[in-house]
Amino acid sequence: MLVATVFLSLVSLSFAIPSSNFTSTKRSVSGPAIATDFPDPSLLWVPQENSWFAFGTTGNGKHVQMASSPDFKTWTYENTDPLPTVANWVASSANVWAPMVVQLDDGSFVMYYSATAASNTAAHCIGAATSTNVRGPYTPVQSTIACPISQGGAIDPAGHHHPDGSLYVVYKIDGNSLGHGGSCNNGVKPIVSTPIMLQKVAANGYTPIGSPVQILDRDDGDGPLVEAPSLVHVGSTFFLFFSSGCYSDTSYDLSYATASVVTGPYTKARAPNAPLLVTGTDGLRAPGSACVTRDGSKIAFHAFIGSDIGTGRAMWTGVPTFNGNIVTVK
């Protein structure tokens, strides 16, 4: 069993989820919290367990990696696979990416994940799995939430609890998988769209309601793509965190956009307020693919363990600060 310990001595933390609105001028970016390869981490606080949970992309022989922490400081890597089986639409080489778990009002859990599509192994689609226990096992739903194969597929799902009680899933259409080469296969013209989509779902957490809505896309300032959305509501503002650049080099970063309603329009934050994290921040290399907790109190993201992606991407943590529509992670 791997235990990775970090100390956030400069930040005041509590075992309960704290208030969304707070300020801090002290450093909070710490880690690696999980020092082995644990890409695309997501976070969840589970009151019944009095513990934090993190879920990561396929690794160590598991479809989904999982770790837990009672205090957001000491993380224990758990050797079980919470998603031991995948849906029948998934190819045999599942390549489960960016799993994210939400807890429903009835106490049960839904895991969103993307995996290789059996119908076209060049593309990923997005599905869900359910469990009564945060540790699983999660039972896959035998239908997809999003599977736009002709547009390159879909990846990076994340759940969102709207203030009105409804549920949404945000995700990326993986357009750069159809690109023409260069950085992340989308650095050569014509550049392909990589939109972030918003899909409303039923109370079960996975049945789509209506059609998805595009809420963001790349522009010339983003490099080849935008991806890894994480959507939270703090105060009167919706904050859509996302990464741009290319995950496999040091252009990767963490940024955000804001809107007054969940469907947008979203306005990207610009310098000096964004990007939030870039290569060099706190000594990080290619920080991104972040998850912000439902109330905005915590953040997890990955960054290179060593000098290149071949050494893996570890999980780091931090504490966001919200001031109106401005975010900092110090």
Topology:
Blueprint: E1 3-5, E2 30-34, E3 42-46, E4 51-56, E5 65-69, E6 74-78, E7 97-103, E8 109-117, E9 120-131, E10 139-140, E11 154-161, E12 167-173, E13 196-201, E14 208-216, E15 226-234, E16 237-244, E17 253-259, E18 267-268, E19 288-292, E20 299-304, E21 313-318, E22 320-323, E23 326-329
Antiparallel strand pairs: 1-6, 2-21, 3-4, 4-5, 5-6, 7-8, 8-9, 9-10, 11-12, 12-13, 13-14, 15-16, 16-17, 17-18, 19-20, 20-21, 22-23
Report what the structure shows.
One of its GO terms (molecular function) is hydrolase activity, hydrolyzing O-glycosyl compounds. InterPro entries: Glyco_hydro_43 (IPR006710), Glyco_hydro_beta-prop_sf (IPR023296), Glycosyl_Hydrlase_43 (IPR051795). This is Arabinan endo-1,5-alpha-L-arabinosidase. With 330 residues, the protein is mostly beta strands. The protein has one domain: Glycosyl hydrolase domain, family 43 (Tachylectin-2, Chain A), CATH 2.115.10. 0% of the residues lie in helices and 42% in strands. A 5-stranded antiparallel sheet has the order 1-6-5-4-3, with no helix packed on it. Strands 2-21-20-19 form a 4-stranded antiparallel sheet, with no helix packed on it. The protein has a 4-stranded antiparallel sheet with strand order 7-8-9-10, with no helix packed on it. A hairpin with a 2-residue loop joins strand 15 and strand 16. The N terminus is likely disordered.
